[in-house]
Please model this.
Amino acid sequence: MYLEANIKLAVYAPNEFGKAQAKTAEGVMRYGVNPIACVIDAACAGQSVKALTGIESDAPIVSTIAEAKALGAGALLLGTAWSGGAMPSEWKKDIEQAILADMDIVNGLHDFLCDDAKLSKLARERGKRLFDVRRSPEKLPVACGRVMKEDAFVVLTVGTDCSVGKMTASLEIRKSAREAGLDCQFIATGQTGMMIEGGDGIAIDRVIGDFMAGATEMMIVEKAKKHPGSLILVEGQGSLSHPGFSGVTMALVHGSCPQAMILCHRPSRSIIKGSDRAEAGADGAGMPISSYTRLIETYESMAAYMRPAKVVGLALNTHDLSEEERAEALRKAEEETGLPACDPVRESGKKLLDAIQSFRNSQR
Amino acid sequence: MYLEANIKLAVYAPNEFGKAQAKTAEGVMRYGVNPIACVIDAACAGQSVKALTGIESDAPIVSTIAEAKALGAGALLLGTAWSGGAMPSEWKKDIEQAILADMDIVNGLHDFLCDDAKLSKLARERGKRLFDVRRSPEKLPVACGRVMKEDAFVVLTVGTDCSVGKMTASLEIRKSAREAGLDCQFIATGQTGMMIEGGDGIAIDRVIGDFMAGATEMMIVEKAKKHPGSLILVEGQGSLSHPGFSGVTMALVHGSCPQAMILCHRPSRSIIKGSDRAEAGADGAGMPISSYTRLIETYESMAAYMRPAKVVGLALNTHDLSEEERAEALRKAEEETGLPACDPVRESGKKLLDAIQSFRNSQR
Model:
């Protein structure tokens, strides 16, 4: 299930473009493979994408589906969420208009468009596709290490916590790899990553427990068969130290059979996300983030049940630190672990790519 | 969702009682909390349960729902599966008759009775309940260590592989604990365990990834609030070393926040179940089962992300070994780990209960 890479996207973000709610829209514009025809947000129509978000893009911001069509849009991507309740009627109207204007729809929301009888019928009649990105496939295998038989070098991003920049680190490394002329593939395991890939991937955290690792394995095997010898970057989720999400992370570690891992961290975070809720076990104090050393030991020893794997670098998300704090965080990370560390967004993915390539070469 | 413990069960196993297919029926008869009114299997009606299965039970084997009713059955438990395709029409007829005869239905199958419009309507009209054991609840929390705030001692059974006797070990320990007059509770996390408990529990391997640990946590917190100070035995699933199921196991480890664990193993098994399939990573050779020492280190270090936990004993499933092999397996297990080991079915759960109680007392 994916959108062809030449189809131009209209990024739909009514009243939200440039705001926190539109993170998916920004992710897609920053890293997506499909060209962007325009953004649709009447509230800031005519303004500049770069001025609003810092993203280097000349795509215009327009108000209507008709304008998007005139700019060559072949798919409408829902790049934000509305706040609670049912889908607003203007959204439904716009989606209908987009289908009538010959566009596919890419939807990362919890509500599935395929479950809407009217939209489904219209899409079928018009031969258009509704990509409900979060819906998991019906038939999934149980994992059994199939990845180890494939000719590819698999790198998984892992974290000290959830929401620390695992997807972004993978995408920056891919960018650097492609600039270097390498065959480098990205496996999306969450809805934003999938939308960046035009719908390709599986949202692993929505898959039933027994099939999470199998779904991961299936995606990697398919990719490796199409791209033998490639570098495959798997988007990580959660953390093996997270009370709620460690099961998903574990399935990704064993499903992907990584040979190398990049450990991602956000230095401004000192406790596990969500662990400071009053009802949590830590009584409001929160559970401290574990040390790099402990987490590296954990990830390497758990991955080893499939095959030997090494954490080869650290990706730090330092966007909320001063220049001085950033330098200090990177210095401390390198000192504690003896591994190269960088902020792949502030710098680029090159330092981490070099670490991966140098380790890969040492293993041949 | 559970059946009151005084309701008598009719165990439905047409054409299968005493055969491998009817494992659930046998599990319920061996360990279930509800009294057994009878078994329904026309193929062996009139024969003895003990002669067919070795289970110490005087329950008669009958042919019809009407006979079960006359014996005081208040619920029909589907204790076997049919082979492929849709539910046989005789099953449907029998289920309808059972509802008309004032029985609730307990169903552990993949097919949900609540999805059958006719059966649902009939059950509603008659005020009877359809327990679809495998269906997971709609609203589940994300785990955050809530168990650690409860007054209970939590013991999780963990494994060297899947299907090695984790449920059985928990149930034998509970039996010994109750014989000793202790307040001991069992948390069912799979469909057979749930049916033994009259429908109580959640089949964790059917829960969506993000909520597996939360579902585990929720069950334990509820149980601990009802039974303060109790010993809570959590049924484990899979293994942290299993390529397909480690995610489910990880969620159970972090969701249950155990203080002690019992490591379960089947000495006749030398490779991970399913890892010798031709398409598996091990190329048909299979992945060897890891040593006790390695697995104990893994379980203890992963549990420690929530709170300190210790593997305090080993449960060996030796039903397919000779007396000599059994003694040798137990001796080797104790020698390698320095922990007490026993086969809780051949002996009883007492040795493991003693290990748990002695560790619990040392921690006060």
Notes: The two ends of chain A are 34 Å apart (CA to CA). Residues 9-132 of chain A form a domain with the Rossmann fold fold (CATH 3.40.50.720).
